[in-house]
Amino acid sequence: MDEPLKLCVVIVNYNVKYFLEQALLSVQKAIDGIAAEVYVVDNNSVDGSVAMVEELFPWVNLISNTDNPGFSIANNQAIRLSSAEYILLLNPDTLVEEDTFKQCIDYMDAHPKVGGLGVRMIDGAGKFLPESKRGFPSPMVAFSKAFGLSKLFPKSKLFNQYHLGYISEFDISEVDVLSGAYMFMRKKTLDEVGLLDEQFFMYGEDIDLSYRITLGGYTNVYFPKTTIIHYKGESTKKGSLNYVKAFYQAMIIFAKKHFSGRKASSFVFLIQLAIYLKAFLTLLGNIFKKGGLVMMDAIIGYGGLLLIERFWSNYHFQDPHYFDPEVRWINYPVYVLFWLISCYYSGGYDKPYQVRRFIRGVLFGSLLLIAAYGLLPTDLRPSRAIILMGTTWMLLFALIFRLLVHFYKYRDFRIGGGKENRLLIVGEEKESIRVKAMLQQVGARKNIIGIISPLKAEASISLGTVDNLQDLVQVYKVDELIFCSSNISAAAIMQWMTALGSKLEYKIVPEESQTIIGSSSKNTSGEVYTVDISYNIDRAIHRRNKRVLDVVLAVFFLLISPILVLFQSNKVGFYRHVILVLMGKKSWVGYAGGASSQIPAIKPGVLPLTAGLNQVALDEGVIQRLDFLYAKDYGIEEDIQVIFRSLKKLGNSWN
């Protein structure tokens, strides 16, 4: 007779393939000796997650949705299929210790009135995540969080009820709210209080369910005797207006559902205030974060033109009022705009900042300015010398500014890629050599200092053993550690991360994986080194170039349409396609085989990649191969070739 199921682990995944792989490997170790089942519910990922689970984890129960129904619905799909005594909702961007599940089961078995349990969580830099323990969002709690009082007074029982800052991260405590990243619950409790409320799409469902667990007569417990890594930022992107809106709207749903009268209205009012405040601060932060360098270039460019004008008026024309004031409000902003736009499309603002691309952008922008100069009215043509000197000024002082910023951040002037991290690999010789080869294969810029062995027997071929890791990190001034999880337990990795602190960067190599995973902040995306195929079409500069080509050609085709339309078999279709391309609904060239989860998604094409070729000779396998090569090696010349061999078919429908 089969042993009754003790535990069901449910992981909802959406486009975090590499983190999911690591999570499942850690889960596989943690369920050893436990009668358990694991469900992965995939919400229509396009990154190959489903194929990866099918290939590497055939023992996992896979539910592959054809759309994204949201976090609550997806979890409920798996919960309804399980008869296990305990249900664990686990994020895909997590890593659990080998005995995490056993410890949770033992505690729950010994405390029958505990309905839900959460654990201590750290981020990818080893820092404790305060959302491991939370209080209910009452109006006062919402006010304190929304207006920053909880951050100002992190240990206050009055102002930091949201993260329960007055409770130690190492004390077992009753709490109000469990984190949705790790919710360990009794199936009996869920049968009584109900599953996740499906009106919550992504946020707030954990608060709602935790609240209903307490209403059902059970308690929720924060259990820090085991720790997990939660790579915050992978399944939730906090630095976006969409996150702000979704999170606080979820809070409004919660308030309207569980509060009534004045309490509900005051809560909703505070939440709405928080939405506008947080949205404004988020927008402001994003502007400075993403556009700070652009704004500085604009200031440098415009300020330089004003100085050059004064110099040129006095030196060349001997007249300080030679130039009309209008040029300062019309010409100079236009000059700066040309430089900025040209730099943007040249990739000068892509990270890491590339000097070569910036110079190319400024020079190309100046060429466009000089070319357009002759088309301007006489009164708007002050002096070509201003443009030429402005170009020199822009190149010189914008580059100096970049060098200073780079030196401030990295203490060197090697602009273009940041500091080359001093790296130690912690693992046995064979696995460490494999990791070195992976780093070289993906072109990661790392200064590999050496190997730290977990075995004393290998001490002769390494810099030392893990027993001396803290001293070795200090002696060699290490910036980054890579742990080989096939040689070191997850528990040991987390202990070292906590002990060494968040000044270092940490990455983990899952056993037999072709991926190295890490994240240095709870608010940023994790960093992934993988030897999987990289696609040119997925790079920002190539996507931008493709869009520029689409717009330029659409405008050009529109200008010559009186002639070009004569050669089109479908004249109405031609104009329709021009409009769709200008609107960004279509690209001139798309995949021949349509959308596929195996290659990066792009806009549907007016023309398929195979337009103008002998379609009869192209079977499905050949078409898939052509699409793969197009995505992998993309350059705008590919699109130009397809378009100009099919100029007479721009109005045709290829579906």
CATH architecture annotation of the largest domain: Alpha-Beta Complex
- What is the rounded Rg? 29 Å
**Count of helix runs:** 22
| Span of the ends, CA to CA | 56 Å
CATH-derived topology of the largest domain: Spore Coat Polysaccharide Biosynthesis Protein SpsA, Chain A
Our estimate of the beta-strand percent is 15-25%
Q: Mind describing the biggest β-sheet? A: 9 strands, mixed
User: CATH homologous superfamily of the largest domain - what is it?
Assistant: Spore Coat Polysaccharide Biosynthesis Protein SpsA, Chain A
Assign an overall shape.
Answer: globular
Overall CATH class of the largest domain: Alpha Beta
Give the count of structural domains. 4
Structure overview:
This protein is of the alpha/beta class and 655 residues long. It folds into four domains: 7-133 and 169-235, Alpha-Beta Complex (Spore Coat Polysaccharide Biosynthesis Protein SpsA, Chain A), CATH 3.90.550.10; 237-415, no CATH class; 421-530, NAD(P)-binding Rossmann-like Domain (Rossmann fold, 3-Layer(aba) Sandwich), CATH 3.40.50.720; 536-649, no CATH class. The protein has helices spanning 17-30, 49-56, 71-79, 100-110, 139-146, 149-152, 187-193, 205-215, 241-258, 261-315, 326-329, 331-346, 355-373, 384-410, 429-441, 469-475, 490-500, 540-559, 561-564, 571-582, 620-632, 636-644, and strands at 7-13, 36-43, 61-65, 86-90, 94-96, 114-122, 173-175, 182-186, 219-230, 421-426, 446-453, 464-465, 480-484, 505-509, 515-518, 527-530, 587-590, 605-608. Helix 1 packs parallel to helix 2, helix 5 packs parallel to helix 10 (261-315) and helix 12 packs across helix 13 (355-373). It starts with 6 loop residues before the first strand and ends in an 11-residue tail after the last helix. The model has no long low-confidence stretch (mean pLDDT 85).
